[in-house]
């Protein structure tokens, strides 16, 4: 996949693995681990689905969100069935500049924590009891809005 939208920028190296059926035997795991080397956190299982990893569940969730958005862009633009015009590919210069900007905007939390907490809060507001251990700031918002 070519970088054609902002969600691609946050993904880093995207790895690919040819789907070979369900993995039952230990020796079947070797090709999968070879195709998903560290530090990559994004794997596209061809003809099967998407897989992400991270230091935390929150980070893996955020990466999956960006990967899903990137794939949706490919579907919406029709690039699955055609070649991406070079004029539509985001240049490496813009990618690097964007990544620098992302770093400047980082909060003092692990990647994905704020986004995951926000989604858990939405579920809590709707009456679902997620049991997610919200941060002190997030708990304050919950208490204020649940009255």
Notes on the protein architecture:
A hairpin with a 2-residue loop joins strand 2 and strand 3. With 147 residues, the chain is mainly alpha-helical. The mean pLDDT is 83. Strands 1-2-3 form a three-stranded mixed sheet, sandwiched between helices. 46% of the residues lie in helices and 10% in strands. It contains six helices and three strands; from the N terminus they run αβαββαααα. It is globular. The longest helix has 21 residues, at 57-77.
Measure the end-to-end span. 47 Å
What value does the Rg take, in angstroms?
Answer: 18 Å
Tell me the strand percentage band: 5-15%
Can you summarize the main beta sheet? 3 strands, mixed
Backbone shape:
globular
Name the helicity range.
Answer: 40-55%
Q: What is the N-to-C succession of helices and strands?
A: HEHEEHHHH
* Category by helix and strand content: mainly alpha
Number of strands: 3
Spatial sequence of strands, sheet with the most strands: 1-2-3
Low-confidence region ranges: none
Number of alpha- plus pi-helical segments: 6
Mean pLDDT: 83
């Amino acid at each position: 996949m070519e970088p054609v939208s902002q969600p691609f920028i946050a993904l880093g190296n995207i790895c690919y693995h040819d789907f070979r059926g369900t993995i039952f035997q230990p020796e079947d795991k070797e090709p999968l681990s070879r195709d998903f080397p560290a530090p990559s956190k994004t794997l596209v299982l061809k003809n099967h689905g998407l897989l992400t990893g991270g230091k935390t569940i929150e980070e893996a969730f955020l990466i999956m969100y960006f990967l899903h958005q990137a794939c949706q862009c490919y579907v919406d633009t029709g690039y699955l069935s055609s070649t991406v015009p070079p004029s539509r590919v985001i240049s490496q210069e813009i990618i690097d500049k964007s990544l620098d900007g992302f770093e400047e905007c980082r909060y003092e939390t692990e990647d994905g924590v704020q986004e995951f907490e926000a989604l858990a809060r939405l579920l809590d507001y709707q009456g679902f009891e997620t049991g997610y251990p919200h941060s002190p700031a997030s708990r304050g918002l919950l208490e204020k809005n649940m009255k």
